[in-house]
Amino acid sequence: MSIATLSATPPPPSSKAAHRTGRLFALTGAVVGVVYGYDTGSISGALVFLSKDFHLTEAEKGLVNSILVGGSIIGAMIGGKLADALGRKAAMLIVAGSYAVFVALSALAPNVVVLDVVRFLLGIAIGISIVAAPLYVAESTPARIRGASVAAYQVATVAGIVITYFVNWGLSGGGHWRWMLGLSAIPAALVLIPLLRLPDTPRWYVLKGQTERAVEVMAVTDPDVDPRTEVAAVGAALAEESGGSARSLLRKPYARAALFVVGLGFFCQITGINAVTYYSPQIFEEMGFTGSGQNFLLPSFVQLASLAATVLAILIIDRMGRRVVLLSGIGTMVVMLAVLTAVFGTGELHGATTWVGFAAILLFTAAFNFGFGSLIWVYASEAFPAQLRSTGASVMLTADLVANLLIAQFFPSLMAWAGAARTFAGLGVLALAALVFAAVTAPETKGRQLEEIQGYWRNGGRWPASPAAVGPGPLSGSAVPPTTTS
Asked: How far apart are CA 423 and CA 442, in angstroms?
């Protein structure tokens, strides 16, 4: 059935039903984010102990870390097509089930070869997750709170990293690395329950021609708009697009958007955030901190500050706008990397200098999560029209993971070869380049409908004076004006 022949708009859902559905969306996104964050950070503590049990060389230690990222790259590359073919919900079910299985297997690994294979497969699940989860949330929430809703996934991810550091600290006395790796299998399995109760997104139903179902779900997921009008606008926008292939991203009008998302994704990781996540015990030891207590507990406080920064970003992202949050976060990273360069350059890491270095690491990590960490998910879900959205997210996050792989594999060697001061100085130069890039290319999209953002890219990176001049723009009939903030 076409959109034009749809019968009367279904009655609006009760407030109680809408709130219940909203809580289920939030719950599933949060749990998947927590598991992702935990699985990303758990190796930082486990590696200290499993290296002794398996008698790993330095190269083998690096492989244990980087092979997860290698799998994530493959997962990100296929995540968009999987989410389009099977649905956002189906992709989330695959992710949750894979997390539960592969996390449990990694905890039971009898040798490093098995561990590497399982972590590679876990990485594929992670790559799919970081494409599918933000898409699922972004396409199921109203425009006025979409930024905060997608950024909430980053809050959950940071919360997972916080949890893993406290767990690592608690288990470090007995060297229980298998428990460090395996505990997240439980929430991964439990999240399958709410996922099975949720629908797919309205935009995916339109993408597959299931317009009746799209209207029904739109009425539940976005009570602020007329579901018939909104579904009609989504369908019209889809009809304007030629296809969802990666090749489409290289042609006008979205080549500019592709350049933006690839650059932002690459700069997000190449500036060094996962050097802190993966190698914080080594960095703190280099600063002069000693003992497992300090080197496992101090990263926990770093991640707590990051969690607070991410929550702050959520509180202001739909009020102050995307650019203010992004640029202030990157700018603070530049300053903190300069401080770290100076700290390590003194050559006297003791007393007050050591704590200045700790504060710089804490503020650097918090600034990343306030800016890059919160906004990458938002921009990945907003930059393209529905038919290209999952492909664009995959391209962005593939660039992100390639940079992540470089950091994971080469940061320890670079520290040993060039020294900490030069290493952090190099990261500072990259962060400065990221600041300039974001200032030039990042659009302000707060309060705008997903389909309206197409007009920005169609108009050469400028907001059009009127939607009619550039094709589909603001969704007519929407209860939320394009410039409204909440």
From this structure: 28
Q: What is the mean pLDDT of the chain?
A: 79
CA dist 402 and 342 (Å) reads 29
Global pTM reads: 0.72
- 304, HSE (Cβ side, Cα atoms, 13 Å): 8
Q: What is the Cα–Cα distance from 265 to 270, expressed in whole angstroms? A: 9
DSSP letters spanning 5-19: G--SPPPPPPHHHHH
Rounded Cα distance, 423 and 264, in Å: 21
Burial of 284 (0-12, 13-18, 19+ CB in 10 A): buried
Q: For the purposes of burial, counting CB atoms within 10 Å of the CB of 417, is it exposed (0-12), middle (13-18) or buried (19 or more)?
A: exposed
Taking the C-alpha atoms of residue 146 and residue 484, their distance in angstroms, rounded to an integer, is: 12
Q: What is the pLDDT of residue 363?
A: 95
Sign of CA dihedral 436, 369, 272, 117: negative
- Distance between CA 41 and CA 86 in Å, rounded? 30
Q: What are phi and psi of 389, to 5 degrees?
A: -65, -45
pLDDT 10s digits, 386-427: 667 667 766 777 788 889 888 888 887 888 888 889 999 999
Q: Alpha-carbon distance 231 to 243, whole Å?
A: 19
| Spatial CA neighbour of 295 closest among 304, 285, 286 | 285
> Three-state secondary structure along 140-208?
CCCHHHHHHHHHHHHHHHHHHHHHHHHHHHHHHCCCCHHHHHHCCHHHHHHCHHHHHHCCCCHHHHHHC
Q: What is the pLDDT of residues 155-175, one digit of tens each?
A: 788 788 888 888 888 887 777
Could you give the CA distance from residue 227 to residue 221 in angstroms, rounded to a whole number?
Answer: 9
Residue 97 CB neighbours (<10 A) = 16
Of 230, 199, 198, 204, give the one whose Cα is nearest residue 215: 230
Q: How far is CA 208 from the centre of its chain?
A: 26
